[in-house]
Amino acid sequence: MKKKSLVSVIAAMLIIAVSLSGCVKISFQPRPTEGTSQPTTQAPAYESTTSSPSQSGEDETTSSQGGQSQAYVTVPTYHPIDSEPFLTRCSELSELAKGNDAAAIISLYDELYAEYSDMDDNSNAAYIEYSRNVSDSSLAAAKDETDNQLTECQDAMLTACLAVTKGPCADAFREHVGDDDFESYAEYEAFTGEELQITKQINELCTKYYTEVDKVDSSETGSDAELVEAVGPIYMELVQLRTRLAQIHGYDSYTDYAYEIEYSREYTREDVEKFSSLVKKYSEDFYNLYYDDYFYSYYNGTATDDLSLNEILKALKTYGSKIDPVVDEGYEYLTVNHLYDIGEGSNRINSTYCAEFCGSNVPYIFATLGEGRNLDSVSHEFGHFIHFMLDPTPNPLFADIGDLDVAEIHSTGLEFLYSNFYEDIFGKDDGAALVNSLLLSDYVNCVINGCLINEFESKVYDNPDMTLDEICQAYMDACAAYNDPYTSSDDYWWTFVGHIFESPFYYISYATSTSSSLQIWQMSQTDFDGACAAWAQLVKTSYFGDEGYLQLTRAAGLAPITDTAAMESMIKSVLEYARAHTKTFSIDDIYGGLFGQNDQDSSLNPFGDSWDSYFGGSSDPFSDIFGNIFDGGNH
Q: In terms of pLDDT, which residue wins out, 390 or 5?
């Protein structure tokens, strides 16, 4: 196993996955390797939601109906940890590795493994506490401390395990941990002092980034320009630190290091460039629909998609049973144990993610509700939740994040399956077709943005000495390459994308996985059961084995991004659906229809003389006149 930097350690263990409303994070944790005697700190939490005994002995309110159910797993809470005793005992394991006392080595290893799993739990718990109030400096400090402790302890234990694989008790150790883990331990390269220092700096800078975003976001006078001035230097320093990490490992560019080491991707940069060229080919057509129809429709107030927590949970339960029995099981596990924190609040992190606790193998959804699209965001994380419930990470020490390109199919694929019931959930009169088209539009935009941000990041990391102005220009150039017509010279949207700061080169996985999920949507229009079966096969299959994105998608009947013909067919299908279910309204159409004028007269036109002036307004007094611009029907 090749060593990963703290960027991947923290990204893997604390954060990943996305909802369209913000940066989404996923945590992956361990389970004992099959056929071995790896220790666990608790019995596996997920077995059956109907007969497991309660561990806490207390009831929890868990459903939208307010019912009481007996909980049988415990969600860890944050507490300060002194890591020095753990580090001392790792040194003791290294010393034992030189001798012949296999029983003593295995016993100490088991104790350390269990303790490390608890530390990983604690790190997740600290992050969740921080997410509830990002303006609390003490919570930010606690998060940073647990992150740094975890990194140091991970390195110490892996270094000790490496020593055991080289010692006289190696065979006994292999029998105890299994071949896969043994080989991973044997290939570990210990952190150098410089690497530990760099990774700690990266941790602290990422926390500082979120603090600065919160300051600007909560300020009445905050602006995009103010944010770029605050976080731009943070990003420049992160680029330098990560570039140095890549150089330590023999890479000239962090871009190549990220693809090959951080994410272990099966496809290459060249494959992504080819796929990106195809996306650019259709991006202008998409943006014409996206801006003319999507934004007009949304500001027009045609759709009612702002659901309460109870309504969201009711929808998950009611329609999940029509998708696959495992969705029912996931809902019961989620609600019986109250494995979620879904709410509102100005100090909460503007993010939705699914975390999984290592020692207990318990997934947990954290979601900050916005002004709309909340069902989409929560059902997205629910897809991750179900997979984590079924397939927890084999070993926390390796910071193995699985296959991200598959992980996001679990989430976005489930969103699209739920969208088949939008007419029941939102009602015809409330614009179910519009909400469905908004979801499609967002995810086509997600494909474009995945490619766009990847191109932007590649440019920056291939030229790590860029000034802040040059970085901003690189983002503008990428927007222009993808034909975004409403990006101006003072558009700093990239500064709001936490992944760019925290998990560079993650975003391309949204493009690849969404391309597969859009195929699930495409299939669901004519073969709903087949689409459900394709999603269920992926969510029930482990992505920690030898097979990755390319093999797993093909096995489920889906095409990967390397299949250009299938990708083009999918893109055309989605665009055709959008055209068939929308009517385009230009400003001239709106003005002429209302006032019977052939020529625009800004003195009479209440919208002014431009698209921007209309949509910059605070209200739309003519929304009732325009009505529902989407045709009805079952979608």
A: 390
